[in-house]
Amino acid sequence: MKLSNIRVVLVQTTHPGNIGAAVRAMKNMGLEKLYLVEPKHFPHADATARASGADDLLATAVVCETLEGALAGCGLVFGASARLRTIAWPQVNPRQCASVISTLDDTAEVALVFGREHAGLTNEELEQCHYLVHIPANPEFSSLNLAAAVQVLAYEARVACVDEVASQETGVTSSPMATADEMAGFYRHLEQTIIDIGFLDPANPRQLMRRLRRLFNRAHLDKMELNILRGIFAAAQKNIN
Length: 241
Prior knowledge:
The protein is an alpha/beta fold and 241 residues long. It contains ten helices and seven strands. It has two domains: 3-162, Alpha/beta knot, CATH 3.40.1280.10; 180-240, Orthogonal Bundle (Helicase, Ruva Protein, domain 3), CATH 1.10.8.
């Protein structure tokens, strides 16, 4: 896995100085790709000042309107969160995250997603991630500055990818994985299919799609598997029309 294939995605960052500090942390560890989802202020002089020489990463930053757009082309997505959720999501610590990343081939694109300074990622945003990454900080004072969280994950990724240190065996397939945008299309197709066959009542969806997302994210579908499943959905829809 190449460090240059890891993108850091910051969602709705409020303070431009945090963007600058984050790119400084990225450049320290050899990460190059920054994606910003609806930043409140960007570009901004405070971001440049806090970058401390890493402003070349600010110049190449990609600004997106949606998280889905920022994840386009990614085969594996990790969402950083300081809090646990009511619905259990596959969870790793930063070292385990890096271990998974280190098993991927050099063509894989990976995203490390960080939420808002005050509220983190929403459950809906987390659903677009394969894993929740939780930094095991002091439980009495667990809130990390955004750039500090980026530094922790970037460091672990560097250790795993450059020094080839992997702390945990994983079952990630070596075949080309379905990308985040392909999975987004898959989930839309899945939802429409189970509505068409009468399995999902759109007036009372409960948490069915969230649980199905969790199931398929855990499976790490490759492109062939995704195409097979979508073929099944299409056949089912055709037979009821």
